[in-house]
Amino acid sequence: MSAPPSLAHGVDPAAPGTLHARTVMGGIRVAPRPGRHVRFGRDQRPNVDLRVGADDQSVSRLHAEVTYEDSRWWLRNLGQQLIRLPRGQLMHRSTDPVPLEPGYTPLFIRGSGYRQHLVELHVTGVYGNPQTDLHAAATNPPKIWGLSETERLLLVVLGERYLLYEEAPRPLTYKQAEARLAYLRPGEKWRAGIIEDRIEAVRHRLHAAGFPYPLRHDRSEGRPYDNNLLHNLLRGLVESTTLVPPDLDLLENDLAL
């Protein structure tokens, strides 16, 4: 089913502030005019402008709304299930509206069981031409964080589950890492306290270098569980490809001896 004329025809897709919205059931684009809104959910048109989760009763008939106000598009959750935004941000129906920044914003609506329903939003930016052809331009490399060989070994031992791309991984404890290193490097006499000190030094160094996730304790809130900061460190190193699956070769006993 095509989008209503007021939501598609006559809209310049490259005009600054234009909203592009898409699900597996279709897509629309909307000009940035005060008071204009786009609604999406399980219901049919004209009650919603874009359908999502049509076969999933965990998705509300009217689940969310994006409204153009104060020169910005604002997202509001109207449904019973949470909406997940980038960086793990969650929106409840009681959450204040969130402004959409220029560029791409994926939204995930929790469905039945393990289902997640994707709504893709893109706001045409005010700078540059989004249709510029960059096929011949150099690729922007990810930020690689500097690690010594010893630091890399310790982090691979602690973060093996992250490098296996397991769902919801958690690091080994320092005591578990000590036992693993006793097998891999029996002549080096690693102790849990020494491993923790080395990792803490890495956290402090990368924090000062602008690491994207918290790596140091907030003293105003007391001392949190150190495992959470180690999780942040390993997550960021894997996401940046500083640590990659081939690093698991360091856990091969024949290479370590």
From TrEMBL:
CDD domains: FHA. Keywords: Phosphoprotein. Residues 38-90 form the FHA domain. SUPFAM superfamilies: SMAD/FHA domain. This is FHA domain-containing protein.
